Amino acid sequence: MSQEVFDVVIVGGGPSGMSAAFELRDRKILLLEKSDRLGGRLYSLPRGDYWMNLGGHLLPGPGSRIRTMVASLGLDVIKIPGNKFGLYFGGKVYSPKSVSTLPFLLPLTFAERLSLIAVGLRLKRAVASWKTQIAVRPGEAEQARRARLSAFLGHISLRDLIKSPAKRIDEIFKSTARRAAAELDDQAAGVGVSLFGVVWSSGEGGLSVNLNGGSGRLGMEMARLLQDRVIYSASVQSVEKAQGNLRITYQKNGAKRTVIARQAIIAVPALAAAEMTADIPEDVAATLRSVRYGAFPTMAVLTNETEPMPWDHLYAVTTPDASFDMLFNHGNPLRTDAAVRKPGGSLMVYAGGKPADELMKLSDDEIRERYLNDLYKIYPQLRSIIAETIVQRWFPGNTYRAPNFVFDPMLTYCQRRDVDIHFAGDYFADIGTMETAAATGFEAALRARVRLEERDSNGRPALSP
Q1: For position 464, what pLDDT does the model report?
Q2: Which pLDDT tens digit goes with each residue over 399-423?
Q3: Where are the beta strands (DSSP E) in 174-306?
Q4: Which domains does the chain have, with CATH numbers?
Q5: Strands 29-32 vs 5-11: parallel, antiparallel or unpaired
Q6: What is the pLDDT of residues 256-313, one digit of tens each?
Q7: Among 45, 288, 431, 447, which residue is least crowded by beta carbons within 10 Å?
Q8: H/E element holding 94?
Q9: Of 451, 465, 457, whose CA–CA distance to 419 is shortest?
């Protein structure tokens, strides 16, 4: 008996895979997801008026692929009114209106103050150049734009750019740079500069909103849309050519299964993509194997506070003096002047880089204890109001570019018209973001659609132009 043939099989249900499935929802598709849910690192759990966030949470601006899906699915976004530049330093939380005022607010020696100003000016100039680089140029293809951005400060490390500031100043930038899940020496300067650029520009329409109800709602609504076109707990073993089509082999409940597809979109982390795909050029496979990822151990914290708290006006705090690098207040978007302050709240912390690697060796209880001890130091009020905590381990976590990393083979592969296996993921950019993941999923879906239409019209595989 002949096996059912799908137009497109999508491997992976994170932002890339969801975006591809959304674009191809009019075709005969199947999405294979390794876990029991869609969303990838967009993961949150509802808790009454709040939600516990365990992964990505900052949404890009209007016109982005993520926002298009959010609006199409009838979901709402809420603005983040709180300060994103908070800093825990010397036993106190500072919340400047602008990062440029930090050198004059922090208790620093004269030498430290000069050191902070020097690094800040260096980064400010680099961010200005980055903004010029990211601007869309008339007639430029997205693949060419990505290649150009990859070359921006890609030949040196972020450490080379900021040099060696005073020790306490260095700790601030180490902690901030770990948003990229890597240390200053390990990430290309372009990675760190883009990170600072995105955060510093967050008031200009990007990364200034949350998904109302938590980021996990996107995966939940997409699951409702796709329904039985998703197979969960499906661990894909191989994607290979088979008699003019593709055979995808996966395991579910201990049993090996196969499906046949005319096209496949591989929307999983690069390392897994390299392991499962056959019949791709060796330089593309080698590029996938060379992509770097860092760990992210996070902890969501649900509180039962009943009155205003000193963190209400903050959304993000960098914490160089703690076991975690960042503290987020996910109750902040609900703390508007016009809103009634309901009881409760929600926080999240995470570590990146080398501290994250060390924490990943510990048990969940040990991670929880370390995180809570430092939370109590920063905000002693938390000791009596924590209702629930959840530790979440992310590996692969965020992806980042190492100095001198070359991504050209993948970009060249994506421009070919004679391939049936397409790739998408956050690793297509210097630093992994949900928007890069979603945008490349959309682009992969368009390539698969064109390929299907060409094969339908010709009755045979399309040739390279």
Answers
A1: 39
A2: 999 999 999 999 999 999 999 999 9
A3: 209-211, 230-231, 235-242, 245-252, 255-266, 292-293, 296-303
A4: 5-43+215-292+405-458 (3.50.50.60), 78-210+295-394 (3.90.660.10)
A5: parallel
A6: 999 999 999 999 999 999 999 988 999 999 999 999 999 999 999 999 999 999 999 9
A7: 45
A8: strand 92-94
A9: 451
